[in-house]
Design brief:
Elements lengths: L1 E5 L10 H14 L5 E4 L8 E2 H6 L3 E4 L3 E5 L8 E5 L2 E14 L2 E12 L4 E2 L4 E7 L9 E10 L2 E2 L2 H6 L3 E5 L2 E7 L6 E7 L1 E18 L4 E11 L3 E2 L3 E4 L8 E10 L2 E8 L5 E2 L8 E6 L4 E9 L6 E5 L4 E14 L4 E13 L7 E5 L2 E7 L7 E5 L2 E2 L2 H7 L2 E4 L3 E7 L6 E6 L2 E12 L5 E11 L4 E4 L4 E7 L1 H4 L19 E2 L3 E7 L6 E4 L3 E11 L15 E11 L3 E3 L7 E2 L4 E9 L13 E4 L35
Antiparallel strand pairs: 1-5, 2-3, 2-7, 4-5, 6-7, 7-8, 9-10, 10-14, 11-12, 11-16, 13-14, 15-16, 16-17, 16-18, 19-20, 20-24, 21-22, 21-26, 23-24, 25-26, 26-27, 28-29, 29-33, 30-31, 30-35, 32-33, 34-35, 35-36, 37-38, 38-40, 39-40, 41-42, 41-47, 42-43, 43-46, 44-45
Length: 634
Amino acid sequence: MEVSVRSDVVCPTGTKKEDWDAAVQTAYGSATSDWQVMFQKEGQLKPMELSEARTQGYLFDMTAGRLLFRTPYGQPHSFNKEVNGVPVEVIHATLFSRQSWVVLMVHLEAACSISEGSYDDAGYMVWETPEMLNPLVSGLTYTQVNVGLNGELLEQSVAEESGFIVERHNGSVEISIPYNAEGGYRKSFVSGDLYEYYIFHLHLEQIEGDEEHVDTRQRSHRTLVTPLLPRHVYTENRKSIFDLTFFTIYLGDVPEDVELSAVQLNEEAPIYIFTIEGGHSITKVVHPNNTHGYTLQVPFDDPAVIKKFSKEDEAMQHILEVTFTLTVLPENEPFFHVTSVMALSDIAPPEFDAICSGSGIIFELEHRPSDYLWQIRIGSDLLTPELATQQGYILTNDSQSLRLKVPLFTPGYVYGDITLTGFLGTFEILIQYQGTSEVQGSTVKTCPFTTAEFILCSTDGKMTVVADLSMAISSGGIPARSNLLSTQCRPKDADDTRALFSFVLNSCGSLIKLGKEYVTYENEISLSRKPISQKNPSSSSDDIDRVTVQCTYPLAGLHRLFSFYKFESDAPGVGNIVHSVFSTQVLQKPAMVYDKVLQTPVPATRRTRPVLVKPGHHNKVQTRLQYPKSVSRT
C-alpha cells in the first residue's frame, strides 16, 4: 500500500476531529526536530523514529513537493475491517516534527480492498472495493472509477466495449472482467483431467473529491486468479448419410496450448499423428476463438474396429473406442480423452471364394452370425443337401464354413468360347434376402477347362461336341473329312486328332428316342477309312469309324419338342459319346429299348425314312410319321 500527498495541500476539513486531537496531544508531547511517526491502531499511539520504522519495512520519502509512505501488506500496525461488506486492510500513520514552536503534522492513511475476487458462472472474474475507501475521511462529494489491465487504464467507453462491467451498489464498487478480456492470461493445467485458469492484472483508479475540490486518487493493482476450472474437450460422431464405410469423429474445443500427440483405437498400439497409416486420417481444424479441433476418420474394416451382429436391428454394429492423448505445452503434461462411437450398417450379402480346379469349381464361404438372413440359390433352386445330391454337387457344411464343389457338366454351368482346345465354364451362386425374392448378391466364377473330348447339350436345343478321332487316324482317317448322319453336316473345326461339331438337335439326321420320362437325341460322327497298304487288301474304303453322340433330356422339363422354330428346356441335357467301329455291312443293335425311335428329316439325297422300332422286335419296319409342332407334357 502506498500513499502520497503534495506539500501544498491544506488540511482536509472532513478529517474527524477526535482523530486529530489524539494525534496532536501525543505529537506535542514528544516532538523533536527530527521526523517521527505514529501508527494508530486500536487507540495505540507510540511514536518512533523513521529510522526504526524503516527497519520494520516501512518506507518514507520526502521531497520538496511530495511526501510518500509505502508499506507491505500485513504489517503489524495495519488492521483489517469490513467496509460495506468488503474486507479492507487499513494503515493509519501520522508524521510529525517540531519546527521552533510549531509542530508540523501530516496525516497519512491507506485503505485497500483485499478481496480475492470470485469467478461467476457467466464467465466473469468479479472483484469488489468500497466506494469510499478512506473510512477516516468524510465530506467527499463525488467519486469516479477507471479500470484497465496490466497498468493501463481504459477510457470508460472502451472498457464497456471490451466487456468490463463497473457497478455500484450498497456503498461498494463491483468490477467484472470477462474471461476473454484482451490483456488477460489463460493457462491449461492437468490434474488427472484437464483444467484451466485465468490471470488478470487489474488496474483500478478511484478518484474521490471533497467540497474544497481536493482530489484523492486511489490506485489499486491486483492480480486476480480464477480457481481451477474444468476444461471440457468434446467429441462428436459426425457420420453423415454419405459416410457408409468409415467413422468421422471430431475432437473439439481444444485450447491453444494443448496439442494432440497420439490416438489409440480399441486399446491397440497408439497411432502417432505424424505417422498415420492404414487408411486413417487426422486433420487439424483451427477456429478464430483461439481453439482448435481434430477430425479423425477410421474405416469400418479397420482391424481395430469391433464388429458385432445385432439381431434386434438386423444390422452390423461397428464399435470403436478412441483414446486421444493430448499434451499441455510447454510442460508436456499429458492427459487422455476417451470416447466410444457406434455405427450400424446394412449386412452385406455373403461372398464366396471361388477356386478353379481341373474337374470343376469349388466355392467356399466363411460363416457369419448374420448368415441366417440369407438364402443361397442356384438358379431358382434353394441350395440344400438334397439338391446337392440330386444335381451331383459335393456339399460340406460345418460350424466354420460351407464348401460346395461343383463338378464339370453338372446342372448350372454356362459354357462359352468353345474351341478344339477347350472351353470356358461359368457357374453362378445367387444370394437372396430371407423372405423376399430379390437377389441381393451373387458370386460368379468362370474357369477354363481342357479335355480330350466333351459334349454339351444346351437348353435351347443345340449339341456341341468335340470328339477324339485318334483311333481312326491310325487307319488313315482325316478328322476334317468326318460328318454326321447327314453328310452335309461337317465339323466346324478340326485338327489332327479331333473334330468340333455344333448343330441343332433335330437336324443333321438326328435320331429322336422317346421314353416315358426322357427323350434322347442321337447322331453319329462317321469317318471313312482308306486302305493302309496293298498287303492288306481286306481293308476297304467302305470301312467306317463311328462315334455315337447323344443328348438326353427329361420330358418333364421340356416346354417345346419337335419344333422347327424353338427348343426350350429347364435344364441342359446329359451328353454321351460312344466310340465304336463297324463295317457298313453290319447292322447296329440298339443298346437301350425305347418306346419310339424317330429320325429327323435328312437332305433329299439321303432319302432316309423315319424308323419305328417296337420293344422286343428286331425286324425293321418302315413307316412315315407326321411330326407335330409340339408334344404335350401329358
